[in-house]
Amino acid sequence: MKKRLWAVLFGALLGGLLLPGCPERNPQAAEVDGGKILQTRCTVCHDTGRIERAGHDPATWRQTVDRMMGKSNFGPKLTESELQALLEHLATLKQ
Ligand code: HEC
């Protein structure tokens, strides 16, 4: 009987600790943050100023990012999901 009580208490404690933290701790979501990709991968050769001023439409952004990725070995190598997140973020910059 005593053992069972401990098991229930322990279970409740563990559940209470782990469950509320779940949404924030999703590493996948943090990894494909378009703004973060821009800050870390697109500022190697120039700052974000020219990116924010460009005001391209989505199709032109796609071409521009492709061009940036092809520039050299230093160009950002993005996975498909990183590329999508970045393009979505770039589309929000358009004035
Ligand atoms: C390997 C270095 C390098 C990296 C990394 C890089 N750029 Fe560039 N970028 C350049 C150079 C050099 C120019 C100026 C010459 C030109 O336009 O091609 C430029 C120009 C630009 C321009 C202005 C020209 C235009 O077509 O509007 C934009 C916008 C831009 N970059 C966006 C980006 C974005 C977004 C990223 C991240 C995906 C990025 N860059 C990463 C080197 C780089």
Describe the 3D structure:
The protein has a domain at 27-91: Cytochrome c-like domain (Cytochrome Bc1 Complex, Chain D, domain 2), CATH 1.10.760.10. Helix 3 (34-41) packs across helix 6 (80-91). The longest helix has 17 residues, at 2-18. The mean pLDDT is 80. The protein has six helices and no strands. With 95 residues, the protein is mostly helical. The site of heme C (HEC) has 16 residues, from helix 4 and helix 5.
The fraction of residues in strands falls at: under 5%
CATH level-two architecture of the domain at 27-91: Orthogonal Bundle
Bound molecules: heme C
- List segments where confidence is low: pLDDT < 50 over at least 5 consecutive residues: none
Radius of gyration: 22 Å
Query: What is the CATH topology descriptor of the domain at 27-91?
Result: Cytochrome Bc1 Complex, Chain D, domain 2
CATH class of the domain at 27-91: Mainly Alpha
CATH homologous superfamily heading of the domain at 27-91? Cytochrome c-like domain
Give the SSE string: HHHHHH
Give the distance, in angstroms, between the N- and C-terminal Cα atoms. Answer: 67 Å
* Tally of individual helices: 6
**Overall pLDDT level:** 80
